[in-house]
Each structure stands twice: as structure tokens, then as C-alpha cells.
Specification:
Number of helices: 1
Radius of gyration: 20 Å
Number of strands: 15
Helix content: under 10%
CATH class of the largest domain: Mainly Beta
CATH architecture of the largest domain: Roll
Low-confidence stretches: none
Mean pLDDT: 87
Strand order of the largest sheet: 4-3-2-1-5
Number of domains: 3
Oligomer: single chain
Largest sheet: 5 strands, antiparallel
Distance between the termini: 44 Å
CATH topology of the largest domain: SH3 type barrels
Shape: flat
Strand content: over 45%
Length: 185
């Protein structure tokens, strides 16, 4: 694939090791050649690095194995999952999961990505429903279009919600951006 085809979450081979693209920016500075600036995380060591590619440079994309897994429980900093086909259990450290830990609720089905038989991360569903556990009360006289307020969800995720959302209500969150979408009725 060309460097200009890089997207967030793509896994590529960089310096002989698999790296996940965390951020990327396509730049065309003045009359110079276009390039892609990318922030990458090494999937074996966990270290992050910056890289610059010519927009026409060929990059090797890694083909990952996908396995459907069910989230079971958390023990210390390790999150345990079960393969829904073989019933094998796998533990992943919080560091390998990154912000995806905020989308893990008991029994949720997720896609686990494997590289050379080793788990390297998960892909949560696009939208997830979570319960609001802590948020300031609605102010009297505030309209629905009033200013948003912070809310803490059951997994510890902090999101900005409209003023009418109360504690105990369920909300939908976009897992790609971590933003509030709507209240569940």
C-alpha cells in the first residue's frame, strides 16, 4: 500500500517490526513534495515513534488474524478474554489495550487481533451503551441546548453529555472517538 493510504489503527511493518498507526497527517508544504507524518507504536515493545514517509512510498501492511472473544473479568492490570469458538482464555495487559479498556463491560463480544499467534489488541464494537455513574445535577432553567457537562461512566470513561442526562441513565458512546452520541430510552 502507499503511505498516502495510511489510516488510524492500520498495522504496518516498520524497521522490521509490526507497528500500529496511532496518528497520521498528510502534508503538502508549499512547492515541496507531499509526505505523510505518522505516529507509530511498536506492537512487540510498546514504544512509540514518529516516522515520515513519502506519499508514494510503498509500505507493507500486516495481515492480522481476527478472533471473536468475550470479555470475562479484570484481575489487577490484566483483562481476561475467552475465545467463543475454542473456549481458550487469554489475558491482555491494560497497556496493550490502551483506551479500549473503557469499552469493556462484562460479557461484551469483541474482535481480538493476533499477530503470529500472539494477541496484540482488540477492536471493540463501533457503539457501546454505558451507565452514567457520576454527573452534576441539571441546573434549573437550563435548556436542552444549554452548556454540556462532564459525566463519569461505569467503566471510568469521562465524556461530555448534554445538561439533561442524569446519573443512572444509559448513554451510547462512539468507541472510535470516545464521544457521547445519545441517551438510551
Amino acid at each position: 500500500m502507499n503511505a498516502s493510504d495510511l489510516r488510524r489503527g492500520t498495522v504496518i511493518i516498520f524497521n522490521g517490526a509490526p507497528h500500529r498507526v496511532l496518528e497520521f497527517q498528510h502534508r503538502t508544504p508549499g512547492n515541496l513534495r507531499a509526505f505523510v507524518q505518522a505516529k507509530l507504536r511498536n506492537l512487540k515493545s510498546g514504544l512509540s515513534t514518529e516516522a515520515r514517509f513519502s506519499s508514494t512510498e510503498n509500505i507493507e501492511r500486516v495481515q492480522l488474524e481476527q478472533h471473536m472473544m468475550q470479555y470475562l473479568y479484570k484481575e489487577g492490570d490484566t483483562y481476561h478474554f475467552m475465545n467463543t469458538e475454542t473456549y481458550d482464555q487469554i489475558g491482555l495487559e491494560a497497556e496493550a489495550l490502551g483506551d479500549n479498556v473503557y469499552y469493556l463491560v462484562d460479557g461484551i463480544q469483541i474482535e481480538m487481533e493476533m499477530y503470529e499467534g500472539r494477541p496484540i489488541g482488540i477492536e471493540p464494537p463501533g457503539v457501546i451503551e454505558l451507565t452514567v455513574v457520576e454527573t452534576p445535577p441539571e441546573m434549573k432553567g437550563a435548556t436542552a441546548s444549554g452548556s454540556p457537562k462532564p459525566a463519569k461512566l461505569e467503566t471510568g470513561l469521562m465524556v461530555t453529555v448534554p445538561a439533561f442526562v442524569k446519573e443512572g441513565e444509559r448513554v451510547r458512546v462512539d468507541t472510535a472517538t470516545g464521544q457521547y452520541l445519545e441517551r438510551v430510552r
